């Protein structure tokens, strides 16, 4: 192991920096370059997916159809979700892991650098293929991101391309996850025991196992759709002895762990940021690790809470209700630990901290509606209404995405060697927070009042709340341009960052220079 | 002290918002209490869960706010050094657990009741189509389709110059509603002809998927006559948003008359068909 490392070091003596020109980005096996690629890719996809969301919200601004045809509307809701989940949140997390995991555990690079290059570079192809279905005969997928048959099988010529692109994204995620597991298992610096690992590393470690466990399940499910459509199988067709509900079971066996894949790394990020700006150690480190692990384990036995209305037997409904409620306990522990970390600290409120605090509050609001949704008898009322839309957007936007944005603000001085513009960063936070609530909070009300999700037009009594949501959506969308300005300014220059960057920060990443050398730790650090 | 004032202020604000029906009545912002025993129970569960969540929110966000105000560097504080406490951690694992049990017990009882469709007095079969519903009274052989009302149908077209605000019950009206008797336990058998649909009436607190090739059951017993409206809630293609559910609940005698007239018109229709 160590011999192999020294060997690479020796070769690298000849070229310490990156290859020149554009080819650098194509051929790179450097964890920082690949992390950067992932992050920019995710940002671009964020604007594409966001543009689709604005089409949806424009149509929903007023009752009546004004902007798009209902079939195109359905393509937009489906594509928006697929892009935001697979093209924004997941790649952003992998990008952050690429940048930070090796640096945080004192490794020179990722364990499998060539596979790393491959797992990024198949993504743009996968997404180009997915987006191209919008221009094919019959349009893009319009059956919802959950792809329920028989509806999803009514898709046009784009259908097999959609399935193939999902396979590609899945392969990319699995390779990324294997790489992260291999890195964390093998390349930790001497003294970096498991229970000394930073929480971001821990949460990603657990997330990677979730990915390896469930992405193949998704691949299997969509492949069965493909053979049902083209090769005469009848897995999901009652006429041939199959069962459409079986698809939903398989899909959500993937889908529920997937929603935790979309949040656990953000838990880790927030657990790094809050201690730094509270100037106080994370409260309950061990219980954070155990809580994350139990969330991950429980996430495999709650899937059917997405399917309370499919007509399960009573015993099944009871089981999934109780199991789902149980998840709230470790989730609560995490929130309490974050608050206890702040308690008695000496806090300052730089942009990363603001986003982390926003995360704690608004993610928790999403958790509250989650507990309500877990109650099966009441979920019959909530299910497939805007109340569910409000729930998952609270956990995903001011949850997962605020976590990612917080991470970028927190680590970008380390990445670029420059401080970002603090004034603009704070403006970005406050404007985003106001609009994101304007956007998603009213959805609780229209949902409870009876508005189903995934409809392009609605009864007039839902008009006022929908108008507010749309205003919030455009405000939130455009305020993300501030983020782009901050990023570009920071990459180009700015006040030089120190190595320590943040007064209260602890961890190996802050022992490196800002920006860090192209090859992170040429001398292995020792953790005491 | 300041925390207390803040907390009280936010409770006041929240409850003013939630209980001032004047301002918000026509906006609709909460589940309906509904018109069945089950829907009342469901509504109360929902409110119980909501208020418990509010209390938890107050505790968590209150502590956070206090800490953000008091424990800031600009106040010249030195950070504390504690970072674990087994006792505290056990307490905040156990308390949520107890709260969840308080919620789970009534939820389980209500669920058991909802799933018990025995002793029904009338059976109706519902079939979902892209994009309409078919209702069938198997005991009397009556069946008919129920589709979006003509007025909504015209107004919903892109570029139509009908103002949807002038359409009565826009998107929530059908040409021929389902008719059921009041105070009667009605059992529904649900299925679909093409893709999955889902049949929902918020006032009855019942929603279930209609799945091609399978039959689901659910039941209701409505306490008040009236017209109740809902929609298809499972994405079912292009016109998913345009297949409302409308149920007319009438007195038993009126229902029998209605059913008889339906049977009659069906038979005369059949005679016409055979003589032709
Ligand atoms: C306290 C923890 C949580 C509980 C108890 C919970 C519970 C639920 C339940 C019961 C549903 C199904 C609602 C329905 O369709 O009727 C749901 C939907 C959903 N949840 Fe959560 N949830 C929790 C946290 C999260 C987190 C952390 C995420 C992701 C970051 C998440 C993402 C979603 C998504 C995306 C959906 C909707 C999927 C769809 O139908 O398209 N939830 N949640
Ligand atoms: Cu779930
Ligand atoms: Cu439908």
Task: Give a structural overview.
Chain A is mainly α and 528 residues long. Chain A is built from 16 helices and no strands. Chain A has one domain: Cytochrome c oxidase-like, subunit I domain (Cytochrome C Oxidase, Chain A). Chain A has helices spanning 2-12, 23-27, 31-59, 70-105, 113-132, 159-186, 199-230, 244-261, 264-278, 285-298, 314-342, 351-374, 376-382, 386-416, 422-449, 463-492. The longest helix of chain A is centred in the first third of the chain and has 36 residues, at 70-105. The radius of gyration of chain A is 23 Å and the shape is globular. The model of chain A is unreliable at 1-14 (pLDDT under 50). Chain B folds into two domains: 2-115, no CATH class; 122-275, Cupredoxins -  blue copper proteins (Immunoglobulin-like, Sandwich), CATH 2.60.40.420. Chain B is built from six helices and ten strands; from the N terminus they run ααααβββαβββββββα. Chain B has helices at residues 2-19, 21-24, 37-70, 86-114, 150-155, 252-275; strands spanning 122-129, 132-137, 142-146, 178-181, 186-192, 197-201, 206-210, 216-220, 226-231, 244-250. Chain B has 276 residues and is of the alpha+beta class. Chain B is elongated. In chain B, the strands form three sheets. Chain B has a five-stranded mixed beta sheet. Chain B has a three-stranded mixed beta sheet with strand order 4-10-9, with helices on one face. A two-stranded antiparallel ribbon of chain B has the order 6-7. At the A-B interface, helix 4, helix 10, helix 11, helix 12 and helix 13 of A face helix 3, helix 4 and strand 7 of B. The complex binds protoporphyrin IX containing FE and copper (II) ion (2 copies). One copper (II) ion is lined by residues 128, 131, 197, 232, 236, 240, 243 of chain B.
């Amino acid at each position: 192991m160590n011999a192999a490392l020294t060997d690479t070091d020796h070769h690298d003596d000849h070229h310490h920096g990156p290859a020149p020109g554009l080819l650098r980005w194509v051929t790179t096996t450097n964890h920082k370059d690949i992390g950067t690629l992932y992050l920019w890719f995710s940002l671009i996809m964020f604007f594409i997916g966001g543009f689709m969301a604005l089409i949806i919200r424009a149509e929903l601004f007023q009752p009546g159809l004004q902007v798009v045809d209902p079939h195109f509307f359905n393509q937009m809701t489906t594509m928006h979700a697929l892009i935001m989940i697979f093209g924004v949140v997941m790649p952003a997390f992998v990008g952050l892991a690429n940048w930070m995991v090796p640096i945080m555990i004192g490794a020179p690079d990722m364990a499998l650098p060539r596979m790393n290059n491959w797992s990024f570079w198949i993504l743009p192809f996968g997404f180009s293929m997915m987006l191209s279905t919008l221009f094919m005969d019959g349009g893009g997928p319009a059956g919802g991101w959950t792809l329920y048959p028989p509806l999803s099988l009514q898709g046009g010529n784009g259908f097999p391309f959609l399935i193939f692109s999902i396979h590609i994204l899945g392969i990319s995620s699995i390779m990324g996850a294997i790489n992260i597991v291999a890195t964390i298992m093998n390349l930790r610096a001497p003294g970096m025991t498991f229970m000394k690992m930073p929480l971001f590393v821990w949460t990603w470690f657990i997330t990677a196992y979730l990915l390896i466990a469930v992405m193949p399940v998704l691949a299997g499910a969509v492949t069965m759709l493909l053979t049902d459509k083209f090769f005469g199988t009848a897995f999901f067709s009652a006429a041939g002895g199959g069962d459409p509900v079986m698809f939903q079971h398989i899909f959500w066996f993937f889908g529920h762990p997937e929603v935790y894949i979309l949040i656990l790394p953000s838990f880790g990020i927030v657990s790094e940021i809050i201690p730094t700006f509270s100037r106080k150690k994370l409260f309950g480190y061990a219980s954070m690790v155990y809580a994350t692990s139990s969330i991950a384990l429980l996430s495999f036995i709650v899937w059917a809470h997405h399917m309370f209305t499919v007509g399960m037997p009573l015993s099944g409904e009871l089981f999934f209700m109780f199991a789902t409620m149980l998840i709230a306990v470790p989730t609560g522990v995490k929130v309490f630990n974050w608050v206890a970390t702040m308690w008695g600290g000496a806090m300052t409120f730089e942009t990363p901290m603001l986003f982390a605090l926003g995360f704690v509050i608004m993610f928790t609001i999403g958790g509250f509606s989650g507990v309500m949704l877990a109650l099966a008898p009441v979920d019959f009322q909530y299910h497939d209404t805007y109340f569910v839309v409000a729930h998952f957007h609270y956990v995903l936007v001011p949850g997962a995405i605020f976590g990612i944005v917080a991470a970028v603000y927190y680590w970008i001085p380390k990445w670029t060697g420059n401080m970002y513009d603090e004034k603009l960063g704070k403006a970005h936070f406050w404007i985003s927070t106001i609009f994101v609530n304007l956007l998603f909070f009213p959805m609780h009300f229209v949902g409870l009042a009876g508005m189903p999700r995934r409809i392009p037009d609605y009864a007039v009594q839902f008009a006022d709340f929908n108008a507010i949501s749309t205003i919030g959506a455009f405000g939130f969308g455009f305020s993300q341009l501030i983020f782009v300005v901050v990023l570009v300014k920071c990459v180009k220059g700015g006040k030089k960052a120190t190595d320590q960057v943040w007064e209260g920060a602890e961890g190996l990443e802050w022992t490196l220079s800002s920006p860090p050398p192209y090859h992170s730790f040429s001398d292995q650090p020792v953790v005491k | 002290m300041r925390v207390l004032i803040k907390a009280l202020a936010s409770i006041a604000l929240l409850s003013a918002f939630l209980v001032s029906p004047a301002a918000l009545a026509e906006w609709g912002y909460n589940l309906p209490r509904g018109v069945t025993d089950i829907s009342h129970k469901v509504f109360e569960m929902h409110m119980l869960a909501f208020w418990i969540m509010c209390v938890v929110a107050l505790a968590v966000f209150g502590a956070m706010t206090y800490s953000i105000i008091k424990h800031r560097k600009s106040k010249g504080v030195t950070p504390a050094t504690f970072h674990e406490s087994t006792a505290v951690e056990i307490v905040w694992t156990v308390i949520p657990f107890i709260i969840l049990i308080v919620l789970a017990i009534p939820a389980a009882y209500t669920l058991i009741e909802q799933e018990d469709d025995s002793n029904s007095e009338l059976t109706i079969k519902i079939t979902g189509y892209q994009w309409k519903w078919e209702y069938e009274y198997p005991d009397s052989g009556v069946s008919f389709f129920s589709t979006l009302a003509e007025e909504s149908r015209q107004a919903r077209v892109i570029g139509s110059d009908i103002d949807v605000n002038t359409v009565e019950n826009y998107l929530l009206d059908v040409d021929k509603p389902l008719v059921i008797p009041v105070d009667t336990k009605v059992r529904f058998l649900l299925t679909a002809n093409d893709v999955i649909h889902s049949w929902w009436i918020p006032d009855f607190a019942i929603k279930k998927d209609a799945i091609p090739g399978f039959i689901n059951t659910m039941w209701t017993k409505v306490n008040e006559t009236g017209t109740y409206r809902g929609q298809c809630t499972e994405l079912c293609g292009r016109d998913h948003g345009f297949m409302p559910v409308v149920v007319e609940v009438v007195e038993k005698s009126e229902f029998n008359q209605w059913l008889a007239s339906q049977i009659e018109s069906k038979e005369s229709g059949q005679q016409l068909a055979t003589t032709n």
